[in-house]
Specification:
286 residues, mainly beta, 2 domains, 23-stranded mixed β-sheet, two-stranded antiparallel sheet, 1 helix
Length: 286
């Protein structure tokens, strides 16, 4: 079974590398991008937008630069805008947005192939204070993604070659990065992280119900409260385990079971950490 899981990880790594190669072709060395999306003619061209309309889901596709999503000032409406550097913007390289049946969709540029030159763009999205989203989905290439104190049901972030930094209140958080570091601070019930070589940090003041982390060589740091018991599987070829809960942890084959005290109920929290050579460090939040 362990050999099968390792093979699965290796196959997954190969698939990610193939995707990266395709992205490099699509970006033409960073001088142009190929961005194709449906209903392109329905999108509005703008670089600074204030919206009063209500929406529930957020979907962002971004390339060179960054995406910053955070809560704005009390009483302020939704506002999002882009800041460009490195080259002059044209109409073709100006962002597009569309309100589509309750989903706000934001695109980096026009649909089709677009020359960028040295252009980098940074997208800032300020949500109204207390605004709760259903689903947040941000996809980036050569892009740093940051969520700061955002509340949503599900948060999904994917960056092909940039760091992901998520601080949120959500039921479920998913993050995937090819080479960037991933940091998640949340009280989510379910956390899922996958990266090839980036470091992974997960900080949870309340114990997640499910935690799944896959990485090849990036070290993993988990910071947990330890108030609730949990069982974790650490599947690695040559990685090390540093466990601050070691005194109250019992190993059963490939599984480790942590119980905070003798009277604690049986754990319903299941964690799986799969690496090739990364070190797993579990720390206690004090």
């Amino acid at each position: 079974m362990r050999a099968v899981k390792r093979l699965s990880l290796i196959v997954g790594i190969f698939a990610v590398v193939c995707v990266a190669c395709l992205l490099l072709v699509a970006c033409d060395g960073g001088n142009s991008i190929s961005l194709i999306y449906a209903n392109a003619n329905a999108y509005t061209v703008a670089n600074d937008v204030t919206l009063q309309e209500r929406f529930y889901d957020l979907d962002v596709d971004w390339f060179n630069g960054s995406v910053i999503l955070k809560e704005g000032q009390a009483g302020e409406p939704l506002r999002f805008f882009e800041v460009a550097d490195g080259a002059e913007q044209t109409r073709d390289t100006t962002m597009r947005y569309l309100l589509d049946n309750g989903t706000l969709r934001i695109k980096y540029a026009k649909s089709g192939r677009t020359a960028l030159g040295r252009l980098k763009k940074h997208l800032y999205i300020y949500l109204p204070a207390g605004f709760v989203l259903n689903d947040v989905e941000i996809s980036g290439t050569d892009c740093y993604i940051k969520l700061d104190d955002v509340e949503a049901n599900v948060v999904e972030c994917e960056s092909k070659s940039g760091d992901i930094d998520v601080k949120c209140r959500a039921r479920e958080v998913e993050a995937e990065s090819l080479s960037g570091n991933v940091r998640i601070e949340s009280e989510a019930l379910n956390v899922d992280v996958e990266t090839l070589s980036g470091y992974v940090t997960v900080i949870c003041k309340s114990t997640p119900r499910e935690l799944d982390i896959k990485t090849t060589s990036g070290n993993v740091l988990l910071r947990l409260s330890g108030d609730t018991g949990f069982r974790f599987e650490y599947d690695t070829i040559s990685g090390l385990l540093v466990n601050a809960f070691n005194e109250n942890t019992v190993r059963y084959g490939k599984y480790y079971v942590y119980t905070p005290n003798a009277d604690a109920p049986a754990s319903i929290c299941e964690y799986e950490i799969e690496t090739v050579s990364a070190t797993l460090t579990i720390e206690k939040i004090i």
